[in-house]
Amino acid sequence: DVQLVESGGGSVQAGGSLRLSCVASGDISSYNCMGWFRQAPGKEREGVATINIPLGGAYYADSVKGRFTISRDNAKRTVLLQMNTLKPEDTATYFCARSRRWCRPSMARGDFDGWGQGTQVTVS
User: Fold this and answer.
1) Within 10 A of 73 (CB to CB), how many other CB atoms are there?
2) In this predicted model, what pLDDT tens digit does every residue of 37-68 receive, in sequence order?
3) Strands 114-115 and 92-99
4) pLDDT of residue 94
5) Euclidean distance between the first and final Cα of the chain, in Å?
6) Residue 5 is inside which H or E element, if any?
7) d(CA 117, CA 26)
8) Residue 24's closest CA among 62, 68, 92, 74?
9) Residues of the chain scoring pLDDT < 50
10) Which of 1, 85, 97, 99 is surrounded by the fewest CB atoms within 10 Å?
11) What distance in Å separates the CA atoms of residue 92 and residue 99, rounded to the nearest whole number?
């Protein structure tokens, strides 16, 4: 199976920006959907943004629309999440995920069968 490795997390002040990177160990073209989820302490893991790997269309959680942008580079086996205008409520561990199913607006966690280890984002 293709492994996912996230990077780019860190600590930033409110209003700042971070860019998360997810690099896959193999070809991602066999997956239809990849995305980012996040989990804050004591909360459920929630979908943040997903992207259709073949065609590039994306879905976003309402809480991040207009601030976050997901993109992919199939040749580099990479999915990026550009996060701007960060808020304290964005503080969480961010996970990259992959799915053979097509992306859905619901960003259901159960659609995804592979996960990275996560990268911490802290906004103060």
Assistant:
1) 11
2) 999 999 999 999 999 998 889 999 999 999 99
3) antiparallel
4) 98
5) 37
6) strand 4-7
7) 16
8) 74
9) none
10) 1
11) 22
Residue whose structure tokens are 């659609």 = 111
Residue located via tokens 């995920």: 97
CA–CA gap between residue 17 and residue 55 (Å, rounded): 26
DSSP 3-state of 94: strand
Helical (H) or strand (E) element with 60: strand 58-60
Q: In 3D, which of 47, 25, 45, 27 has the Cα closest to residue 36?
A: 47
Q: What is the pLDDT of residue 29?
A: 81
Rounded-to-integer distance, Cα 92 and Cα 23, Å: 20
Q: Residue 1 has what pLDDT?
A: 80
3 state SS of 110: helix
